[in-house]
Amino acid sequence: MTCQPTCRIQRSTDLDPHDFAHGIVEGAFSLIFPDPQARLRLGLRAISRAGHGGMAWYVWTAERTGAYEIALVPDFPDDAAGGAVLALRYFPDPDEPAFQDFSTVEQAVRRSSLFDRTGTPAFDQADALDPALFCIGSLVLVPQGEERFTLRLHVPDRWIEETPDGEGATDRRDVAAAELALPIVDALVGGVVYLGRAAPASVQIWRRPGTVLRGAADDRAPRPADPAVTEWEIEWSGLAMPGRSPGFDPASAGRRPAGPPWFAHASETPPATAPWPVNARWWQAAHWHFDPVGMYCGHCAAEEAAGHVHILTHHCEDAHHEHRT
What is the CA radius of gyration of the chain? Predict the structure, then answer.
């Protein structure tokens, strides 16, 4: 099992994948989560940095009871891919129906002491978790000029693996990967669009025959195309870098997927009819406007500007900002 895409991606020679991924993922979520209205609209509940040494985030959504991990793939071969590649994993809650779709090994690990009460790897156990487990897809980030980037999601509709268990039986994993991945990817895309006040320049989707992984536990090599699996590639082009100016740079976003897309839309508004997995939020978020978090208080602002400790010298009932005592 691997969370890495199989496609080739042109690498920018002066790109630092660590800084690039951090600027997008951390940049977007750090601006979204303090805003309760945006967080609610995007279906986000909580976020935490992962406990292991790599760059990774744990994210909880309102739609799923499990937890997601978005993790930078380290040391991705220069001759095989470029930009920044992020592994997308889902840690299912043992009480949700999707839990039974994961392999026997994954179910046992999820119930073990490697995980804490948050449903994510325990801080002192995170490095012990096999990174090949719980994969549902991958994200590719590609720079598009100085102010824009392209995001690509690679995910099968069903991630199927069949592995002999050594006792004559087969351990089968049959996870609805695309369905699991969309809540967190929709939230990331919607958040970037909301922050940048601009819809993607274009959205394109490709559908290709997928594969079922069959073999020994140490040799899960992809087999020829299987009609039971469809591989999805969704590309959002011209997304604004979080926290940057809204200028548009039409520079190329690197490698273009081969073949005509199954779906293509280039407009500031969503399509009139949108087939699954297209989400109108990818365009609508550019026009969201929420009330400010908290009310402006001239007394508080004046005392803070003067360096005074606020001791409630006036009648201020705003529950959205804190008063120091």
Answer: 22
| All structural domains of the chain with their residue ranges | 17-292, 294-325
User: In the chain, what is the straight-line distance between the N-terminal and C-terminal CA atoms, in Å?
Assistant: 55
Convert the pLDDT of each residue in 203-238 to its tens digit.
Answer: 999 999 999 887 664 555 556 778 889 999 999 999
Specify whether the CB–CB gap between 154 and 101 falls below 8 A: no
The answer to whether 216 and 305 have CB atoms below 8 angstroms apart is no
Give tens-digit pLDDT for 120-177: 999 888 888 998 999 999 999 999 988 999 999 999 999 999 888 777 678 899 999 9
